[in-house]
Amino acid sequence: MITSLSNRSVKEVVQLSGKARERNQQDLFVVEGMKMFGEAPAGRIRKVYISQSMEKEVYRRYEKKLAGLNCELVADEVFAKMSDTKSPQGILCLVRQYHYQIEQLLAQKEEKQLLLIVLEDIQDPGNLGTIIRTGEGAGVNGVIMSGRTADIYNPKTIRSTMGSVYRVPFLYTQDIRQTIQELQNQGVAVYAAHLGGSGYYDEYDYRNPTAFLLGNEGNGLREATAECADACVKIPMEGRVESLNVAAASAVLMYEAYRQRRQI
Asked: Residue 8 and residue 186: Cα distance in Å, rounded?
């Protein structure tokens, strides 16, 4: 059992939770909590840490899954140091990162059902995680992010996905405009969420291959990026509200596409 805060494993987990560079170097990310552990693919889990006080409960729930994994017991006060949450649930694990190529995103389903989300410079980890979670619910085939978008392996992002990070393909691109062009060359229509849109979002047909393009929380899309889209669409606003939170806006767009496709 780990009882020292200076233990090498404790330091490793803390560094992985706090530093994107460390996560990328080790090709790992940290997952916390019963639900997130329960949904994590066993084949991707490198190591599991269980707090002493929660040992019986964790094994009661996941004895079969834990049997084939490298597990270590941790004293409660040490586990609290390893945890990124205020109220640790008694289990965390190290999971191997995912690596997708754009070809995999494009080939996820039949061409006519393809639905992608393209994000430029989203900064809030919670927004990013919520978009991925909502995307799974709306049947999105993948998420493409600019290089300046928040780290998907940030513990806050991981928690916000509620497990969707294991199932929704994603990738980062260093040239989002070039990637948009590549999507269009593959027959994907790209619609940018923009306050200056020429029409409302529900006036367009999303039953064919579609990608929704959304921008930074404070500044929206860069104009040069928005100009790459096939069309700019807007969401009607009542009262004195100028715009929606980016996660809320993405949900409106994704579920409109989902609604249209359910009627096919």
From this structure: 48
Residue type, 252: V
Specify the DSSP class assigned to residue 98. P
Beta strands in 111-195 (DSSP E): 115-119, 142-146, 170-173, 189-193
The three-state secondary structure class of 262 is helix
Residues ≥6 apart with Cβ < 8 Å to 27: 96, 97
Give the separation between CA 139 and CA 245, rounded to whole angstroms: 21
3-class secondary structure, 46 = strand
Distance separating alpha carbons of residues 115 and 211, to the nearest angstrom: 6
Please name the helix (run of DSSP H) or strand (run of DSSP E) that holds residue 105, with its range, or none: helix 102-106
Q: What is the pLDDT along the chain (264 residues), one digit of tens a residue?
A: 999 999 999 999 999 999 999 999 999 999 999 999 999 999 999 999 999 999 999 999 999 999 989 999 999 999 999 999 888 899 999 999 999 999 999 986 666 689 999 999 999 999 999 999 999 999 999 999 999 999 999 999 999 999 999 999 999 999 999 999 999 999 999 999 998 888 999 999 999 999 999 999 988 999 999 999 999 999 998 988 888 899 999 999 999 999 999 876
pTM score: 0.94
Nearest to 213 by CA among 129, 119, 149, 115: 119
| Torsion over CA: 249, 253, 258, 260 (sign) | positive
